[in-house]
Write a structure and sequence with these properties.
The complex is a heterotrimer of chains A (436), B (156) and C (255).
Chain A: E1 16-20, H1 32-55, H2 63-87, H3 96-99, H4 109-142, H5 148-160, H6 169-202, H7 214-248, H8 255-260, H9 267-306, H10 311-321, H11 323-343, H12 349-371, E2 383-387, H13 396-400, H14 403-423
Antiparallel strand pairs in A: 1-2
Chain B: H1 7-26, E1 31-33, H2 37-41, E2 42-44, H3 46-52, H4 61-65, H5 69-76, H6 85-89, H7 108-115
Antiparallel strand pairs in B: 1-2
Chain C: H1 2-13, H2 29-35, E1 41-46, H3 55-61, E2 74-81, E3 86-89, E4 103-104, E5 110-111, E6 118-126, H4 135-138, E7 145-147, E8 153-155, H5 165-169, E9 176-177, E10 184-185, H6 191-194, H7 201-205, E11 211-215, H8 222-229, E12 232-233, E13 245-248
Parallel strand pairs in C: 1-13
Antiparallel strand pairs in C: 1-11, 2-3, 2-6, 4-5, 7-8, 9-10, 12-13
The chains are: A mainly alpha (436), B mainly alpha (156), C alpha+beta (255).
């Protein structure tokens, strides 16, 4: 036990490249999964805020995308937790955060805030879809020869109806009121969920790049930006798929078609809805982008102007080592380019979707530059560390903290959304007004 | 408001009660706030004792001298008297029961930690007699000429 | 104390509550320390005497695999040249000491410094400062790391979830993931030794008395005396952590 001569690879060593003077215990301990964690919670929060714009503030123009955003936000929720679980050295003990929370730590709130937020989103979906759930229970219950699918669905709907079968106009009115309250309650909770993710970084006083009170605000703004952008992109892509299916009558792979036999897929209607929604949403994207960008630039100018002890090394990281990542990829490609694309008059659906995709990339790069960039320099201010992401996994660790883990987290929400759609059709059109 | 709107709330309350019940069973009894308050002292109390019981590997100097009288006397006359036995002889653990014998580190590198000449003007390291390892009897272990317990050159 | 007792009994009363009420009790550390005035561990380092010998003993004593590139204590070398440039290194945390004149610059290779250019050179051992306001403990989300009443910060290996927040929070870089236990690990001042009256493994291994553990509350303790009588410094006090490892001969180059 005393003499262990075999090379022991410590956590972080596989992907950390050290240069100049770095302390022996310093590694890039927080890697791709911690980049994805605020990114994913940001998407959750942003998607929810987008749906709330309709439910709380009554922005009628966002009606169609609001329902999609709500269900999509719910699909993203478990995935916001996934990076953390993949990152933990002892994932089985993750429950400790809920069991013995130590509230002086920013991370401790995760369990409680996350649960509270899940409950709010789930309840809101319940109210939004209650009428549909009840009608599904009635419809499936009336059927005598139920297939396996239908039997499963019937059971699920019966369970989630919670026995509330009242769909009288007064009951529906009460539902609407509840939705409004929940959506209103959800905005501060969503902001908190993500703001505190910013606080996790902003409160690390040992890290010269992270420590700023602006961090939570910057995180919230970029969260809303990324959430809206993701909704635009996904709404665009999913609608393209549905249009494609509607045109050729190949709607058999659509989840709601599988679950409910028929789904409202009418080509012309879809096209007009998509165009309207995407264009409207991109306006809101522009507003929040301005805010996020202002704060980020302010932070950087402030650091340069006050130039405290850490500025020498920060300048080196920001302006030299990470220049391409920060100024070319994040600000250039991810911010200014889509900003101009959205500002030029005559925005088309395709251009808005493309701009949103760039925005998504920009926010991802922002998270990367904060998380990885914050660990790019040593505590001694005299050395640097690089994160070289493991592409081909050699063991479970380099899978989790490498490309494999990142892809897993990236794909998971879409898989969940697909199945969630079978229960809560996100593209459902209210009967009385469909189609125009 | 219609009464059905409270049903999700009941589910949430049920969930909270469930978590609290799990917590009762899951969290050790002695987990709580100790002397240093909630900020610095929130922990499982018995862990302190667990750390206190961690097995020691190194013994104090007297432990060696109790049996190895001759050797500890011989080194005490030399400039190497300051070097603790276990630095070269390895941790005593439960010697002589387990292990029966200790493996002595006679490597050149061990001696060079002090006796490779480094220019260190503001450190005590500068005052230790040193050699240039690239020139001084390369490839030979120091102990072939120098007795570690009595390293002075006169007695060589 | 009445308020505290009241809160405690209330917490017991509703012990089912997930958020125990004792969490509301943010006690002033000074107040707690005053209640336990007899023992507060501290450390004294004499940078003039250090030659970089202690790391191996620490790793063996505390079962940190020798070849793993993490360590509870390490020694840094500072070489300052005539042009004012500061060269620093700590290859493998000085596990094998310093036998070469070359400065290890990691990716930038080994740097040779002509003997004639050196104006100052010295070693600085580093270890956990057992801060009076330990950031690492403050940021632990589950209460897996904590400070004992006598001032030593420990990690509960059965409760740590391995999030790495404490590693990020420590301004001194003393924490790391233990390669075998797979939880956060750090210097404990050899808590198992000092609480039985023994010396720490590192202090015992040092032939020159460069390292010393002691009770800061005991006026006759050599460490406490040195802290009072001599000109000593602490590391990175700008973070407000109130470190308890004191350094004789600390230089402005040491950060």
């Amino acid at each position: 036990m005393v003499e262990q001569l075999a090379q022991v690879v410590v956590h972080g060593q596989a992907w950390t490249v050290k240069d100049l003077f770095v302390l022996p215990n310093e590694y890039v301990y927080w890697s791709i999964q911690i980049v994805l964690y605020p990114y994913m919670t940001g998407l959750v929060a942003g998607a929810f805020v987008l749906s709330s714009l309709y439910h709380v503030f009554g922005v009628e123009k966002l009606k169609e995308i609001a329902r999609f955003a709500l269900v999509f936000s719910f699909a993203l929720l478990p995935v916001a937790m996934l990076p953390l679980m993949l990152h933990l050295m002892q994932p089985m003990r993750g429950i400790n955060v809920l069991m013995t929370p130590h509230f002086t730590s920013a991370i401790s709130a995760f369990g409680i805030v996350f649960l509270a937020y899940t409950c709010i989103v789930a309840a809101e979906i319940w109210f939004v879809y209650r009428e549909f759930i009840v009608s599904s229970v009635v419809r499936l219950g009336a059927k005598s020869d139920r297939s396996f699918y239908e039997n499963t669905l019937f059971f699920i709907y019966k369970l989630i109806s919670l026995g509330a079968m009242d769909v009288s106009p007064e009951a529906l009115k009460a539902d609407h009121k509840a939705i409004k309250i929940l959506a209103g309650l959800g905005i501060p909770v969503a902001s908190f969920l993500h703001g505190y993710a910013g606080f996790i970084f902003g409160s690390v006083k040992a890290n010269a790049l992270w420590m700023t009170p602006l961090m939570p605000v910057i995180f919230i703004c970029s969260a809303i930006v990324s959430g809206i952008a993701l909704c635009i992109v996904c709404y665009y892509v999913f609608m393209e798929l549905r249009k494609w299916a509607a045109k050729r009558g190949k709607n058999y792979f659509l989840p709601d078609a599988i679950a409910h036999g028929s789904s409202a897929v009418d080509y012309e209607h879809l096209r007009s809805v998509q165009e309207h929604e995407v264009k409207m949403t991109s306006k809101y994207l522009l507003i929040f982008m301005t805010l996020a960008l202002t704060l980020e630039i302010l932070d950087m100018i402030f650091r340069g102007y006050t130039a405290v002890k850490s500025w020498d090394i920060l300048r080196n990281v920001l302006l030299e080592r990470d220049f391409t990542n920060i100024f070319v990829l994040q600000y250039g490609v991810g911010n200014f380019l889509p900003f101009i694309m959205l500002l030029i008059p005559g925005v088309t659906v395709r251009r808005a979707a493309l701009a949103s995709m760039l925005v998504l990339f920009g926010v991802f790069m922002m998270r990367w530059n904060v998380v990885i960039g914050g660990q790019a320099f040593s505590l001694t201010f005299h050395g640097f560390m690089d994160y070289s992401m493991p592409i081909i996994p050699r063991d479970i660790e380099s899978f989790k903290e490498g490309l494999g883990g990142a892809l897993l987290v990236g794909i998971a929400p879409f898989v969940i959304f697909y199945f969630l759609n079978m229960i809560f059709p996100a593209f459902m059109v209210d009967k009385e007004e469909a189609p125009h | 408001m219609k009464r059905h709107v409270w049903r999700p709330l009941f589910v949430v309350i049920g969930l909270v009660i469930f978590i609290l019940l799990v917590r009762l069973w899951y969290v050790p009894d002695d987990f709580g706030v100790q002397e240093r308050g909630y900020t610095y002292g929130y922990h499982r109390l018995s862990n302190e004792q667990e750390w206190k019981n961690y097995p020691a590997k190194y013994r104090d100097r007297g432990y060696c001298a109790d049996c190895h009288v001759e050797n500890s006397e011989s080194i005490s006359m030399s400039p190497h008297a300051v070097i603790p036995c276990q630095n070269c002889h390895g941790p005593a653990l439960n010697h002589p029961d387990d292990p029966k014998g200790l493996s002595i580190d006679r490597s050149r590198d061990l001696c060079l930690r002090c006796h490779s000449k480094l220019i260190m003007p503001s450190s005590g390291r500068n005052d230790i007699p040193g050699i240039d390892p690239a020139k001084h009897n390369v490839g030979i272990e120091c102990s072939e000429c120098h007795n570690p317990h009595n390293p002075s050159l006169e007695d060589m | 104390m009445k308020r505290r007792d009241f809160l405690k009994s209330t917490a017991v009363f509703i012990s089912g509550a997930a958020v125990s009420l004792s969490s509301l009790e943010l006690l002033d550390p000074q107040e707690v320390l005053a209640a336990n005035p007899d023992l507060r561990w501290g450390f004294l380092v004499d940078t003039y005497k250090c030659v970089g010998f202690c790391v191996k003993a620490c790793k063996i004593e505390n079962d940190i695999p020798l070849e793993a590139d993490v360590t509870r204590t390490w020694v840094e070398r500072y070489v300052i040249t005539k042009d004012g440039k500061v060269n620093m290194d700590s290859p493998k945390g000085a596990l094998n000491g310093y036998t070469s004149k070359l400065i290890d610059q990691n990716e930038s290779g080994m740097k040779k410094i002509p003997d004639a250019d050196i104006t100052q050179a010295f070693f600085v051992p580093k270890l956990c400062n057992q801060c009076s306001n330990p950031v690492c403990v403050q940021v632990c989300p589950v209460g897996a790391t904590y400070q004992t009443a006598d001032g030593v910060v420990l990690v509960d290996r059965t409760w740590c979830i391995g999030c790495g927040y404490c590693i990020m929070g420590c301004p001194y870089g003393v924490r790391f993931f233990h390669p075998v236990a797979n939880v956060a690990d750090k210097c404990t001042f050899c808590y198992h030794r000092i609480s039985k009256g023994d010396n720490t493994a590192c202090a015992q291994a040092c032939p020159f008395g460069a390292r010393r553990v002691g009770n800061l509350r005991d006026p006759n303790d050599p460490v406490a005396k040195a802290v009072l009588d001599q000109r000593i410094g602490v590391l990175r006090d700008e973070y407000g952590t109130k470190p308890n490892a004191y350094y004789i001969g600390l230089s402005k180059e040491v950060h």
